[in-house]
Please model this.
Amino acid sequence: MAYAGLSTERLTLAGAELADEVGFDRVTVSELARRFDVKVASLYSHVKNSQDLKTRIALLALAEMADLLAAALAGRAAKDALTAFANVYRDYAREHPGRYAAAQLRLDPETAAASAGARHSGMTRAILRGYDLTEPDQTHAVRLLGSVVSGYVGLESQGGFSHSAPDPEVSWSRILDALDALLRNWPAPGAAPAPEAEPEPAPAPGEESAP
Model:
């Protein structure tokens, strides 16, 4: 029989709060049962196992971030939209580190298709349409944005920039400037790099070089 007062939604939210407190990797049904002061068996009416609980937390985090993105991007375009988009992920990771880690959980194809992940992708592509990017460059740019934002947020959360100058806020701002410049000047497919200038020949012995 289900324990009175418990529900899948309540346990998922409690699991998300636990993830923020102790880390997503330490979230288990057993730990959650201890928080509610009930037997582990009492929770199996609502979640199958710890993996099911973690998947539900991941889906919650994806949905929460999608809602925040939608609100942040409303009425914005180009650089303003890019900045708002990146800041949502960074701020969410700072406020909810466990949830943010949960959002990186690899989901099976069916679960992923039904998740808010599609909303994230759609909003990312909406930003890139403001830069006049079409396929396949749009997909390349989606992957670039994901890599840069996820990489910076991950390194920052691990203290990677804590003991060096300049301040991480300055670097973050400059990185967004650089991304905006790159997206506005996206290279054409197969564009070859400009040839390097050949060095001037050395003067023959006894000759003076031109000023």
